[in-house]
Amino acid sequence: MGDQPASTSHTPILAPLDWEYAPSRESADLVSIGDRYGVFVDGDFRPPLSKKWFETINPATEDVLAEAPLAGERDVDRAVQAAKKAAGPWAKLAPAERAKYLFRIARMVQERSRELAVLETLDGGKPIREARDVDVPLVAAHFFYHAGWADKLEYAFAGVDPKPLGVAGQVIPWNFPLLMLAWKVAPALATGNTVVLKPAETTPLTALHFAQITAEAGLPPGVLNVIPGAGDTGASLVGHPDVAKVAFTGSTEVGKLIQRRLAGSGKRLTLELGGKSAHIVFEDAPLDQAVEGVVNGIFFNQGHVCCAGSRLFIQESIQDVFVGKLRDRLQTLRVGDPMDKNTDVGAINSAAQLEKISELVDSGVEEGAEMFQPDCALPSRGFFFKPTLFTGVSQSHRISQEEIFGPVLSTMSFRTPDEAIEKANNTPYGLAAGVWTTKGSRILWMADRLRSGVVWANTYNKFDPTSPFGGYKESGFGREGGRHGLASYLDLSSVR
Ligand code: NAI
Ligand code: MG
Question: What is the CATH number of domain 278-465?
């Protein structure tokens, strides 16, 4: 017998992680959380010049996790200057070399995925199952994908000479802290820009741990800076004269403020704002699958999702059957401890968000819609809200017009495809939509007429770095992901 070839264990780079040996409740010991963090500026953690800190809590227990720095105007300026100084050398670096940093960061995110997933869940309240199976793998995927583009930009934009813009000021929300970081930082760095990133005030921790990863990856100082803080910090970042490009994800209200503020400044701007997305179920749909899709569409991440399928339109002939199935499924959802791997619906991100959800749900009852909630018990501490289903909703009700950003589904009915389109498009928003039907031609017919940036067919909440994401109308403008997303970070005005 000849020598056996050495056995090689080949792990595909995006293989799901091996969670089999983990305890059933993910342990907070997997991550070491500092007592007090600094801002990450010019390659190192530094005490904020503001000399101010704020507490970030675990919304599932209300316990304080750590103190994050509250970056003031001088901190913003110091970070922008560091990014500006780093911009020239970073832009001049051979693109294949830039790519190496992004590949390395992607691998390190995978290696430290448990730490990052646990931290994301502790700081923000999302179920650990989602943080580990969706958020963190997608973060790595975004860095891998964009690493691949770094040395292929001239092919992506044939005939032009793509140039970076300079310093990107990025402001992100609390619903997907690490994933929104990846959506913004990966394309910015791949295209040769440098970054100052402001995470949201309730979820600063994963961005700070990510900053540490980039330092360990040897990313040159100043290429990425992370400055936690609240709205004032965000406002001084987007208004800083040396910021060339602003990317914002958050509420439509703040998006409009930023747009007004930047008008005439010459800065490039992309806005990814709110939504009130329509989920449409036809009578010929595979109903049990559609129930799962609808449940995922609204209860994923407690409904704190810009593209949440928060308005459900059911064809009249199956309305009663479908609502019955939905109610049964809601009874089986497990609400509670986000660190428990069996939890489906975790903690609401903050007391303020819980108040907003409660107020809108009360308005639904007052305006005459019929509310259903499963009879599950909620934890006595922390911020929680029962999965909620409304029937008898009219299009004028606040719960069918306003973004609730919580685990609340408003259901309505329709008879014909034309009526479904008219109702689905009757919103100031235009981020996403879902269609359930077995007729392929109907899917295309609907996709043509739905005024939303994404249309999912027989699925929902599927994200991929290759597909551009963004909205129409008050959901914002510009696209993130895919080749379109790269264009937002490039000056494409000079011909080669
Ligand atoms: P927000 O829009 O105030 O916060 C998002 C980010 O913007 C945070 O980092 C915040 O510090 C920053 N920010 C606030 N004011 C700013 C300003 N003037 N200039 C620059 N940056 C600023 O959202 P908030 O108050 O946390 O949530 C309120 C509602 O907004 C939610 O109930 C939800 O309906 C919606 N929302 C939508 C999101 C989405 O992804 N579409 C994300 C977060 C909130
Ligand atoms: Mg927190």
Answer: 3.40.309.10
* Catalytic-labelled residue, pool 26, 120, 306, 480: 306
C-alpha to C-alpha distance for 166 and 163, rounded to whole angstroms: 9
376 given a catalytic annotation: no
Q: Give the pLDDT score at 177.
A: 98
The CATH number of the domain covering residues in 18-273+475-491: 3.40.605.10
Is the CB of residue 202 below 6 angstroms from any atom belonging to ligand 1? no
* Residue 454 phi, psi (nearest 5): -125, 140
Which ranges of 405-481 does DSSP label H, i.e. alpha helix? 417-424, 440-449
Across all residues in the chain, what is the average pLDDT?
94
What are the tokens at 493? Answer: 């005005």
Average pLDDT over residues 63-86: 97
Interval 224-247 mean pLDDT: 98
Angle of helix 177-190 versus helix 95-111 axis, rounded to 10: 160
pTM, two decimals, is: 0.94
> For the chain, how big is the Rg over CA atoms in Å?
23
Helix (H, G, I), strand (E, B) or coil at 164: strand
For 170, counting Cβ atoms within 10 Å of its Cβ (0-12 exposed, 13-18 middle, 19+ buried), the class is buried
Residue 396: is its pLDDT beyond 60? yes
* DSSP letter string, 233-280: HHHHHHH-TT--EEEEES-HHHHHHHHHHHTTS--EEEEE-----EEE
Cα 437 from Cα 435, distance rounded (Å): 6
Across the range 342-363, mean pLDDT stands at: 98
Domain ranges of the chain: 18-273+475-491, 278-465
Instruction: Report how far ligand 2's centroid is from the alpha carbon of 345 (Å).
Output: 17
Count of positions (residues) in the chain:
496
- The Å distance, Cα 361 to ligand 2 centre, comes to 24
At 55, list the tokens.
């507490």
